[in-house]
């Protein structure tokens, strides 16, 4: 055959009838179709709950390794991915913007893609990646040089790629993209560099940019290449030109509520960290120092990128309490449709799903120093002495008053995703209880340089734990039980109809707890710390569970005294897959 005929035959084989294509319906049914996992979050509402109960409390002791897959090389570092499983292939991303396609039955590699990263990338918090997305015949993921790449599912060949933003200005991308209605939707990272948070939507087939929505007031959105509407009202809550480098990075991606056809993305800290430079240092009657929409959840119409509503968790933010944490759509015990989110600032919020209106909020960590609570109006009741001081008020003008703050800037909960169990009606929140000394310093914006105006040291607060996995009732905020861990928790949680709560620890244990009592029912030592996100699925009549092991992420880089405390932990890079053999499924 000549090359032309070979190409035609190959294209017929690839495009021919019967070739599997992930559809919008597949994405919408990801939670209920237990044969595959085609979205990050095991459903775009991010509940991370599986209706599978083949594996359950009575037989989980029989869960055994099926295969393990090494990411190889010297490029280990933090492995925060969530695997996807589709049409006999598992897809995972790895540190340094790598992708692997693996035979899901044997663990054998099918293809690997390594993004060629330029010198001078500026990832703030390790060279991690949190997973990809699948739609049609393509796999989508973001890279550390702030690109979105579409790969052919079967071959790993690049179909299209596009620049999200300029990595030289501090932009990068690590979150899993979200696909809704044929659009690939991404955020951006770089909130520590004075970038501007934005959400972008591209045609999944062509990569063509459809709309953009900046997160900071004053910036213009776009729709099909034309300016659309301004985000917020210019200078309503930001002084002078500070909004131009105002942060609000959308670095954790978003969720999608199909019932209200709404995307919800979180926006990170306002930049710089030093709140006194943003007019946020003291309370104002007209709330003009709020710095919208930083430290907020923003609801967006997927059709055109217009903002539907917003809820700001930390107005006048001054502790790096990014508002990015995942917003999970759920139905409460009385049948009401709500959202829940556990914020960096230590409070667990419930919002109305129709309009984002505040319903209630409770602390999910102990001894919070910056606010007494959340008022009926949804605004924090500040403890003003808990705010790091203004350096311009200091005698030499170089360093403001240092305060002890809890949670630390790495948060009561950081990126690590929680789970909602439809079986118990509880949220399972991977929290951390730690504090920090924090102070402010003068800073001016410089492209590609850290833009903080703050210094800090993270410290443990309790003898017996930092990590704390809590079962939280979203009706009352009550903690039903708590599982304490020595090191900070930094990986995802998954619940199942079998009554199991799966998560991993930096110490390397992959654990299944009883969802009602928190009792440890099973564990497996994976050899390196777990900061990945577990999944489960069914294949050939058996239930499988997989999780990535490979210690890293922000804690070793930014954790101060806590980093020193856990510096004995080994790096790694192994994807572990477990199965419950059919013969042992009925064992008691
Ligand atoms: Ca931040």
From TrEMBL:
Disulfide bonds join 124-125. GO terms for molecular function: calcium ion binding; oxidoreductase activity, acting on CH-OH group of donors; pyrroloquinoline quinone binding. Ca(2+) binds at residues 192, 269, 320. The active site is at residue 320. SUPFAM superfamilies: Quinoprotein alcohol dehydrogenase-like. It is found in: Periplasm. Pfam families: PQQ. Residues 1-20 form the signal peptide. Pyrroloquinoline quinone binds at residues 80, 130, 174, 414-415. PROSITE patterns: BACTERIAL_PQQ_2 (PS00364). Keywords: Calcium, Disulfide bond, Metal-binding, Oxidoreductase, Periplasm, PQQ, Signal. GO terms for cellular component: membrane; outer membrane-bounded periplasmic space. Residues 44-357, 461-545 form the Pyrrolo-quinoline quinone repeat domain. Its main location: periplasm. Binds 1 PQQ group per subunit. Its cofactor is pyrroloquinoline quinone; Ca(2+). Belongs to the bacterial PQQ dehydrogenase family. This is PQQ-dependent dehydrogenase, methanol/ethanol family.
